[in-house]
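Trying the structure run again after the queue cleared.
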Amino acid sequence: MNDVLAAELGEVRATLARQKSRVLVASGVRPERRDAPPTFPTTATLADPALRAAAGTAGVAVTAHGGTFAGAALDRGTRFLLTTADRWPTDVTDAVDLGCGTGLLAAVLALRSPAARVVATDRSAAAVASARATARANGVADRVVVVRDDAGEGLADASADLVVLNPPFHDRAAVRTDAAHRMFATAGRVLRPGGELWTVFNTPLRYRAALARAVGPTEHVAQDPRFTVTRSVRG
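Done. Tokens:
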């Protein structure tokens, strides 16, 4: 962190450490950085095989503003979820990317189901800006509606046929799972009868029982030591 700060700011000093923590104090913009162009948002075209297969395209563009999870890249959890996309329903009218981050999954949903309207929702302003830009970059902005919303609480009841979810398990520096459980409850509320929730999560979290309670019958679709993908069906 000293080096990161020193690359942009003129002076960096550290206080004495207490246990595992210390305070870094930085001040003064470096003259050569004062008029430098912004480094965000960044855009990349991703050609990962799992992503290409899920979207049915040669690549998917992603745009990320600063602070958005995974940046302009494909995180490993989302990639593992995408390996199951051949089993997702395609004849959907309304789909939701819940906790959308950069909106990569929302773009995939719109690309693979040309008749679908997709809602992408996230509580982060940076994520919302990123998701809108990602939709534009993939030519699906006319069918992807991006909403700033906490855990999808503003979504209408029984309004979706499909929800995809890669829930957070951190809140800033703390490991917390309450956001995931709120998202499970939202999915159970917004899915129509017979609608499906596809979720990827860290395997040690063992969310299957919670998903079954919040949504409906839940099965393990894929699992490795790090990640699990489940399919939950709304009764």
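Residues 170-175 have pLDDT under 50 and may be disordered. Worth checking whether this holds up in the mutant runs.
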